[in-house]
Amino acid sequence: MHEEYLNIERISLKHEISYPQTGLVIADEKVAKLYPDLFFTDASLPTLYLRAGERQKSWNQCLKVYDFLAEHQASREDIIHVFGGGTVCDLAAFAISTFKRGCRLYLYPSTLLAMVDAAIGGKTGINYLGFKNYIGSFYPAERIFIYPPFLQSLATAELRQGYAEMLKCSMLNEDLLLPELDRIFPPRDQLILDYARYKMGICAQDPYDNNQRQLLNFGHTFGHALESFSNYKIKHGDAIVLGMYIACEYSFVEELSSAEEWEQYRDWISQYPIPKAALSFLSDTALSDMLPQMLQDKKWDNQLRLVVPVHGEIKIIEVEIQADQADKQRKNNAHPA
Ligand SMILES: NC(=O)c1ccc[n+]([C@@H]2O[C@H](COP(=O)([O-])OP(=O)(O)OC[C@H]3O[C@@H](n4cnc5c(N)ncnc54)[C@H](O)[C@@H]3O)[C@@H](O)[C@H]2O)c1
Question: What is the pTM of this model?
């Protein structure tokens, strides 16, 4: 990977955006339709339109991208411009990172979540065998162009998903200000940039996610499990907020947080309107049923690595799970239903 791309200088805030002049384009088909002046007026570059969504982060879609790149004889020197939210960015970036061992990648995130999170830091991936991001690579984009006017067409529920990741970061770093959800939209350009840069700064210090970067997984062990276990009916940001809630509750139950701290975390998290359907899914699901999803990373062995508050500071801890339980779950991992 190009570690030098993990640099805030690679993020540009754009007030105007124009169609690329060279290379190939991959775009979320919905975004292309919503911005015809951008995509259909001067568009002369080969373009692949993709559907967005968690179920599209799949091997079949990945093959579509390979076919497109092969058909247009993309070389490693060619720039592939990707316009879309987190699912299109993750999928396309994964395919681009592996096609001829990597073409040049420019990302134009079109959702709030992709602007402050998914397009930043170089994690790419597709879902496989029922597990989130089971196949992926580290491949930071050479350039990331953030064009906030894209957010004008974004549905409120999708804006909320980005807010979820911002809420997470504001709990990790109190210097990051976060207005209440109903006062944030449209988000100020500077706010978007602050969050994007915050994530980039952490990724630059730990490009391969071995140490401090794992703090960004706050809420993700439970959240990813919820997402895949619900067959992606629960959206990413909603699942992460529920995951943060479970992590804080765990911390309280294990006496890693005081009653006052637990109350404070609940106050923060309750700013976020979790949809009723997601809440009732959670209350109908035993956490132990989601262990296969939580244990999907083989290197964790019998340890579950959790990001939880520990006496007022969010930290990474390792939790032993019983060997026979882990073995059983790993067998399930190998042959998920
Ligand atoms: N790689 C990473 O580091 C990272 C970090 C966080 C999240 N993610 C991933 O990001 C994904 C979620 O991304 P997302 O929330 O952007 O979802 P998404 O890509 O599915 O987009 C949500 C919806 O918004 C539509 N859309 C996109 N841009 C639009 C626009 N400007 N106007 C109107 N509609 C628009 C899409 O077509 C889709 O229907 C998850 O798969 C998650 O795992 C990755």
Answer: 0.92
